[in-house]
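call fold(seq) -> tokens
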Amino acid sequence: MKKQILSGIQPSGILTLGNYLGALRNWVKIQDDENYDCKFFVADLHAITVSQDPETLRNNIKSIIMQYLACGLDAEKNTIFIQSHVHEHAELGWLLNNYTYMGELSRMTQFKDKSKKQENVKVGLFDYPVLMAADILLYSADFVPVGQDQKQHIEITRDIAQRFNSLYKKEIFKIPEPFITANTAKIMSLQEPTKKMSKSDENKEATIFLLDSREVITKKIKKAVTDSENVVRYSDDKPGIKNLINIYSAVTDKTVAEIEEEFKDSGYGKFKQAVADAVADLLEPIQAKYAELALPENDEYIKEICKKGAAVAHEIASKKLKEVQEAIGYRTI
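ret:
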């Protein structure tokens, strides 16, 4: 049987170069591997842990679907759906709350980091990992593509699943593994290169978005933080240049040694222009496909993909939820 892969991204705006190089590009490669059956969703239930304008949220959800498709995800090869369209996610999330400990959730690094930025911390932010566990366990995912910073979420998912299975003495949940692709690019902020590039960064100069124009990309990279040495050298004590080298390497498939050799007699100006051109060239076909999908005549096509994906996901999720309910003691009357 094919191994099951599941992953999703929150609809909090336009995806970044980091999202593409660190996740979506790998998803596109995985979808062509006959050993895997892939499901990719828009994590809109997770998005409301922070306040959302309804109309903006609706537009962002649709936009993420279009960005998935523009980046190369094939709706014929994958199940692509919107999380809130499959009610079993929320139902299983509630059930799993009762098999999760407060201490486990309070130790989650993401909660600690994000709660510092919120004046009134919502229960949903604290409970986020349980819903994520439900997302994964509903589909008996063997692997979940994540970065190193998300491994903790897979660990708590495994703990919840093993606890439930042990309590009811039945292998109801498959125990998932993180799927970490070797040599996946970790793209950092252009303005604070010790921090990960984020689509929620308040400083928009720090982030390259998938739909940024060539002019905007060039402007942002030319403003990227570097240092005064003016030597293109890969070193931890040069985080700005190291980040730009990582971006250029990921986009061109050149090694660090090849890049250092290419720009050994050049200053930062020439190097930054080369990085900007390479990034813009990479994103140009994605942007063209997105513009095509955004045409009004493609609205029904987008809706049909979401409808079909939700139907497939619901059929699988409903069976797993029924198993869970019967184990607990529901569905007996």
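The chain has a mean pLDDT of 93.
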